[in-house]
Design a protein that fits this description.
Blueprint (H helix, E strand, L loop, with lengths): L21 E7 L6 E7 L7 E4 L4 E2 L5 E3 L4 E8 L2 E8 L5 E4 L8 E3 L6 E8 L2 E8 L4 E9 L11 E4 L4 E8 L3 E8 L8 E4 L6 E10 L4 E9 L5 E9 L6 E6 L5 E2 L5 E3 L4 E7 L5 E7 L4 E5 L6 E5 L2 H9 L11 E4 L6 E6 L5 E7 L4 E7 L5 E4 L6 E9 L2 E9 L1
Antiparallel strand pairs: 1-2, 1-26, 2-3, 4-6, 5-6, 6-7, 7-8, 9-10, 10-11, 11-12, 13-14, 14-15, 15-16, 17-18, 18-19, 19-20, 21-23, 22-23, 23-24, 24-25, 27-28, 28-31, 29-30, 29-32, 32-33
Length: about 400
């Protein structure tokens, strides 16, 4: 496949978007024999940053992004070991973890940082796993029995972080395409299955992404006629209640697409996928879900495993504001994000213990105070990243997320 780099700088404002969209992917480095992390802003060739990694290789279509902690994950190979590779987009730290190898059917809950993974360990049975990045606990939360199913569709999963629902598009034994809705936060495992009302005799739906601002599912729909002749690919919206597949726009000049390359920017509502046009040129397609228009252009060389860095969105919507139960102790922290100091105001007038832990669960600060009414801490020496501030007083504990810049 020949890749041609487009050197024209496109402005996302031309489709009603006036913001940077940060993307992350990987690419092999022929000079070092290693794998590089590639970071760039959508459609902007001047924004590319190359970061060498410890990886010698990686597994196809295993990337996922944890917007809660800013971590890019990939099933990777380093030396003689294989495991879950993590690169933090905030700090630049990387590590290999001896954790369950995630498949290409993986998605994160950006309000909790937990990863959900679909596996077909036995034919006709789809297992749903939850992986907690803080405790490294991998747990089976349920199994779906689907007679006749012998595999799982790649890149067909999305997550509603507002309601804790995992969505997956797969085949039933009817046969038909259906939408599985799995509320993963419930104590008892359950799911619903909605048959999709296909727009053509044969549909192939992939690149599923969930819009957490408007509560919508977007995907690509490759369509075929009754003789199984390809008739085009559309960006579609899937109605979670009726199962209707609503065609939003046809990507007329793109007959081919790079598998597992889809992503969604929550801040701007931009659905993105890598396509190959009729001239055999590889391009990034950016579809504006608000304006129902798209533009296409630059994508770095042989980059793959592309994800959208939605860290700022998750921090503003879930981490900082806190999509969590009412705390046992009422306190506030400012400024947030913080640079050099942190002020904590607490309603408790008694003894207070302040504990700050890193995104990986490591304590970086613990101190006792005689009163929690106003506590000022120097955080200049702390590395940039997301932390948890916990206050304990009179046997009660409350926590909040903070960002150190």
């Amino acid at each position: 496949m020949k890749t041609i780099l487009i050197t024209t700088l496109f402005s996302l404002a031309s489709i009603g978007i006036n913001a940077q969209i940060n993307l992350i992917g990987v690419a092999p480095n022929p000079g070092t024999g290693k794998v590089d992390i590639i970071k760039w802003q959508a459609l902007n060739p001047e924004s590319v940053t190359v970061v060498p990694s410890i990886l010698d290789g990686y597994f196809y279509a295993t990337s996922a992004f944890d917007a809660y902690n800013g971590n890019y994950y990939l099933t990777g190979i380093s030396g003689d070991s294989a495991g879950l590779y993590a690169y933090n987009s905030i700090t630049g730290d990387e590590q290999m973890m001896q954790a369950s190898v995630n498949t290409n059917i993986t998605e994160f809950d950006m309000s909790t940082g937990k990863m959900y993974n679909l596996k077909m360990e036995t034919q006709e049975y789809i297992s749903i796993y939850e992986f907690d990045m803080n405790t490294f606990q991998d747990s089976l939360i349920g199994v779906i029995y689907e007679p006749g199913a012998n595999g799982i569709i790649v890149d067909a999963i999305g997550f509603d972080a507002n309601n804790g629902i995992l969505y997956y598009v797969g085949f039933t034994n009817d046969p038909a395409l259906c939408l599985y809705s799995i509320p993963v936060r419930e104590n008892e495992f359950s799911f619903t299955k909605t048959i999709l009302n296909t727009t053509h005799p044969f549909n192939n739906i992939t690149s599923v992404n969930f819009d957490n601002v408007n509560g919508r599912i977007y995907a690509l729909n490759a369509t075929f006629d009754s003789a199984y002749n390809y008739t085009g690919t559309y960006v579609v919206e899937i109605d979670t209640v009726s199962g209707d597949i609503i065609s939003r726009i046809k990507l007329a000049e793109f007959p081919y697409y790079a598998g597992g390359s889809s992503s969604f920017d929550q801040n701007t509502g931009t659905f993105m996928v890598v396509g190959i046009d009729t001239g055999n040129v590889v391009k990034m397609i950016a579809y504006d879900t608000y304006e129902n228009t798209y533009i296409s252009g630059f994508v770095p060389g042989i980059v793959s495993e592309i994800v959208c860095d939605n860290t700022s969105f998750a921090q503003n919507r879930y981490v900082v504001t806190g999509a969590e139960p009412e705390p046992a102790i009422d306190f506030n922290v400012w400024p947030n994000p913080a640079d050099d100091y942190l002020v904590i105001n607490c309603t408790s007038k008694g003894d207070v213990t302040v504990k700050i832990t890193s995104a990986g669960g490591k304590p970086v600060f613990v101190q006792h105070f005689s009163s929690g009414e106003k506590i000022q801490l120097n955080v200049e020496s702390m590395a940039s990243g997301v932390y948890t501030v916990s206050l304990t007083s009179a046997g009660k504990t409350a926590s909040q997320k903070i960002i150190i810049q």
